[in-house]
Fold this sequence. Notes:
- The chain is α/β, with parallel strands linked by helices.
- The protein has 2 domains: 270 residues, 3-Layer(aba) Sandwich (Aldehyde Dehydrogenase, Chain A, domain 1), CATH 3.40.605; 182 residues, Aldehyde Dehydrogenase, Chain A, domain 2 (3-Layer(aba) Sandwich).
- Helices cover 40% and strands 21% of the residues.
- The protein contains 15 helices and 22 strands.
- It has a 7-stranded mixed beta sheet with strand order 14-15-16-13-12-18-19, sandwiched between helices. A 6-stranded mixed beta sheet has the order 9-8-7-10-11-21, with helices on both faces. It has a 3-stranded antiparallel beta sheet with strand order 5-6-22.
- α8 links the parallel β10 and β11.
- The radius of gyration is 24 Å and the shape is globular.
- The N and C termini lie far apart (78 Å).
- The structure holds nicotinamide-adenine-dinucleotide.
- Nicotinamide-adenine-dinucleotide binds next to α7 and α8.
Amino acid sequence: MRDQxxxxxxxxxARNRGRMPVIDPAxxxxxxxxxxxxxxxxxxxxxxxKAAFAxxxxxxxxxERAVVMRRIAEGLRARREDLAxxxxxxxxxxxxxxxxDMDDAAFCFDYYADLAEGLDGRQGTxxxxxxxxxxxxxxxxxxxxxGLIVPWNYPLLMACWKVCPALAAGCTMxxxxxxxxxxxxxxxxxIAAEAGLPPGVLNIVTGTGSAAGAPLSxxxxxxxxxxxxxxxxxxxxxxxxxxDIKTVSLELGGKSPFIVFADSDLDQAVEWILFGIFxxxxxxxxxxxxxxxxxxxxxxxxxxxVAEAERIPMGNGLDDGVLLGPLVSEGQHRKVLxxxxxxxRDGAKLACGGRRPEDLKRGYxxxxxxxxxxxxxxxxxxxxxxxxxxxxxxxxxEAEALALANDSRYGLAAAVMSHDLERCERVAAxxxxxxxxxxxxxxTFAQAPWGGMKQSGIGRELxxxxxxxxxxxxxxxxxxxxEPWGWYLKPGA
Length: 493
Ligand code: NAD
């Protein structure tokens, strides 16, 4: 397993020789150590990225970058099983989900390789400025050195959502993985080097948020910051970006609603509600953690949901058949149990779960938890839990459902279910969210924009929108007439 920083194409220890343990959340045992990078290492990494940018990467064509990116995709596919298993040990998620992440990560490289090629064709597009003496055109240029800060819930995939468009645009970068899950990002660094990515284009500094993330976001030579994580950290990153007027994109938290109308198929509704909150242990920014069910279906749906939630196989993500693994860390385990306790004190009614399962004495497990009668003022209703905890409430009218759904400081995602697609479209248009799923919850595609409204973030990742984040748009305007301009120097005077 790799345990060093990747700076300028060289693997090396942190300058201060610091190390950090990596814990398997299913066993609570330390199974690896990585370098604990600090501000000096971040400085080295940014300098390496800056040199690689000026040294040639910024002048490569999209087609040239696409060749390397497709080789990285192949490298990821070749190591799919190893990487998936490593991700499970690092993060806790069930192996089938980790395999899915690896496939998505490889696809992301291929997808952005296509967009990189497409960028070549967009260069120099003429703009009609309506003035025949002028010819104007647009150039798309890489922003420069990008600082990429990612969380622990999809360690490799979240890194790829940033690395792929940054590479496609022609940026160089410093990637800072979460201190809780640094291992697959380091493997990506090795695969990229084997694929022929020039030294210094992708630098990786493991370390804590304060020792590595904060100095990266403050570094004056970083032109663009892309951050995924919590709202408080996003705020700090945005403040740091403001110092130097850096471009910033933020993918933050959510408390996403799922509106289920009474004409929905019960099985379909239960299946997508389960997927919307228990997939990845509920450690999903877009998890649909507030379920609103029309009264006519409420009782039947709740009974079935509780019965199915209690049946979800839990255990070590590496074990066959497991569909719910441990939470990522002791801290997250405590945070989720505290949120559950607080909800109970606020008067919410626990329908199932809410504790560590009795047969799992080790590992940061929390059983699938369903709450009802949650006071709307309670943090359980309003704040992100980031665990397998869902609140289910009844509603009577479409207007009431929408009002409850939109009463949140977040606006990342939302879902609506009904056989009446016209109604779904109407509700989708009214939901204050950057992502709306109709008759499902959570499916995510690299081609479609991803990001939130309100305090869920700024900007969009994925799709062509993700690429624009890393580009500067330059107009080049030529005075194309032989006639003098004639403002100060009057012709014939
Ligand atoms: P976090 O904010 O604690 O940490 C995210 C990253 O920021 C980590 O790499 C961390 O080391 C770093 N960091 C911490 N303090 C920093 C600082 N002062 N300056 C710069 N970097 C710093 O979040 P987390 O606990 O890792 O992840 C969970 C959060 O991420 C949840 O709120 C979740 O909703 C959000 N999330 C959002 C999306 C999305 O696409 N919107 C996706 C995944 C996770």
